[in-house]
Structures are given as C-alpha cells and as structure tokens.
Amino acid sequence: MYLEVMKNNSNVIYYLLGVAASNLGNVISGLAFMFLAHEITASSVYTTIVAISQVAPYLIFGLIGGVIADWVDKKKLLICIDLIRIPVVLLLVFIHQLDLLSYWHLVIGSFLIHCFGCFFNPAHRAILPIITKEVERMSVNSLLDTVTRGVTVLGPFVSILLLNTVEVIHFFTFDAITYVVSVILIYRIQIADKRLVNKSLSQRTMRDVFVSIKGFSIWVSKQTTIRTLFEVTVIMVFFNTWVWEVGLLLQLIETTSSGEEWYSILLGWYGAIVIVVNLLIPLFWKELSMKMYLFGSWLTNKEISDGVIKAIKNKNRITTIGQLEPWEKRP
C-alpha cells in the first residue's frame, strides 16, 4: 500500500525526504544551541533561556504564520525561508571562527530560526493535501508520522557521530546542508493546483491577519474540548522543554564525563519508545478520548515529578527558573 502510493505519486517521495532532511537539521541545531549555551555560560538559567527562545516564537507568531502561509504561494514560501535560514546558521559558524561567538548570538540565532519555523511549518503541512488524493492521505499521513518520529531517533545518534568527529559549532554547518537538501527536494515537487495561493498577499493587510486570529480565538473559546486540549498541551510543552530537556542535559553534564553524548543517547531512546507506544496504542484502543489524553498527560508529569523529588533526596542538582547565575565566557 505504502509502496504503491510512492510509486504512483513521486511528489510524496520528495515531500517525505524533505521532511526528513528538514527535521534532522532541526534536531541537530537544537542540540547545538543547548550544548553551546551551557558550554559558554555554565548556567542552568541561561541554558533555560535558550530553550525558551526555541518555544517563544511559536507562542508569539504561530497564529500569524499560519494565516500568512494560507495566503501566499506555499512552495515559494518554503524555498525562500530555507534559503534565508542557510546564511543565518552559517553566520554563527563564521562568528565562532572569529572567536567572537557570545551567548546572546545563540539566543538571537535560535529565536530567528524558530520565527522562520512559524511560517515554514504551516505552509509545509498545507502542501500535503494538495499533492495527494483523498484515498492516499491516510497512508501518506502514516508515512509522515513514521518519518518524523524516525528522525527523532536518528537525530541524536547523528549528533553523537558529529560530537566525535567535529566541534559542536559545526552542527550548524550540518544544519545548513540539510536546508540545501530541503530546498532541492521542495523545488522538485510539482504542483499545478491553484490552491497554492488563496489570495494575493498584496490584497491583504495586517488588519486581515488579526481579524482571522480573532475569529479563530472566538471559535476556540466556544469549543470546550479544543480549549482543554490547548491548555494541557501548553503544560506538557513546559514540562518537556524546561524540565525534561534542560534538566536532563544539565544533570548528565554534571554527573557524567560525557554528558552530551549520554543526553543524545537518551533522547534517541526516548524517541524509539514513543514510536513503539504509538504502534501499540491502536492495538488496545480503537478510539482515544479527552479523558485518555488527560490521563496520559497526568502520568507523564507524575513520572517527571517523581524524578525531581528523587534528585532532591539524592542531593543532585536540578534545573529551576530562579535567581540568575553569573557567567563568563569560557576560554
């Protein structure tokens, strides 16, 4: 079934390979920002700020990016964004080679990269229904999920290979290469559908953007289930980003001699478990409800909380957002 879809629709192959390249680069660059932030500052708080800079753009510009992506030529938008992101990440490498890289370069670079993601991600998702027939979408969505989660497993192990061959700064060089590959693959997607552009951007105003967002907000406020889903997801993102990712990295760096490598291994292991769980869930539950989602969220947060409590009892250091710690750039 899957092979038949890809055989009959070459656009699907280019789309999935583009997703793999783009996501792999995102994983690698995300690790680089975290590793370098801690290397430069040796501060849990400043490392946390870098993690926040990767999430904040989606809270600020996420809805705006979705509206804009719906108006313009999606293929051109994707190519333009990738072409812009290439010099941004390479600039960080260049600054590092001049021995001028500072913590705030990382914060600004991370924030900019993820601002572009606010426009790239919705446009990329919107192309899928355009390049597929209705009967193909279930299979392609399944393939997309497999590729996306597969990269979450592959990415950390690629980072281990890079850690043992090049400096962390060249994670960004690798990221730039994945953007080039993504541009080539997106360019090869053939789309004749007029739905690529809903209306010329020149005919739109900023007021139209906020009108669209207001309409969406009013609709969400009346949908109890959707609103609850959003609220719980925000909490889950908080625990995943600021407690799990940052806390785990700092704990491993302080308690092991090769914390960055162990961190990458655990992220890959975590991604593998997620894939297995996703494959097993349909075997036990044919339909998932909001209650099931809330239970899963509670169970996840409970496990994280138990880990924090055990760390405190063992007098191990954990990550908190509190008083800023002084830092100096390491030589």
Mean of residue pLDDT? 77
- Percent strand equals under 5%
Total strands: 0
Oligomer: single chain
CATH superfamily of the domain at 2-223, please? Answer: MFS general substrate transporter like domains
Shape: globular
Q: What series of H and E elements makes up the topology?
A: HHHHHHHHHHH
At CATH level 2, the architecture of the domain at 2-223 is: Up-down Bundle
Low-confidence stretches: 315-331
Count of discrete alpha- or pi-helical segments spanning 4 or more residues: 11
What portion of residues is helical? over 70%
Question: Radius of gyration in whole Å, from Cα?
Answer: 21 Å
The CATH topology of the domain at 2-223: Growth Hormone, Chain: A
Largest sheet: none
Please identify the structural class as seen in this structure.
mainly alpha
**Cα end-to-end separation:** 56 Å
Quick one: CATH class of the domain at 2-223? Mainly Alpha
Describe the secondary-structure layout.
Elements (H helix, E strand, L loop, with lengths): L1 H7 L1 H32 L2 H28 L2 H24 L5 H29 L5 H27 L7 H17 L18 H16 L2 H32 L3 H26 L5 H24 L18
Helix pairs in contact: 1-2, 2-3, 2-5, 2-6, 2-7, 3-5, 3-8, 3-9, 4-5, 4-7, 6-10, 9-10, 9-11
Membrane topology: Multi-pass membrane protein
Keywords: Cell membrane, Membrane, Transmembrane, Transmembrane helix, Transport
Subcellular location: Cell membrane
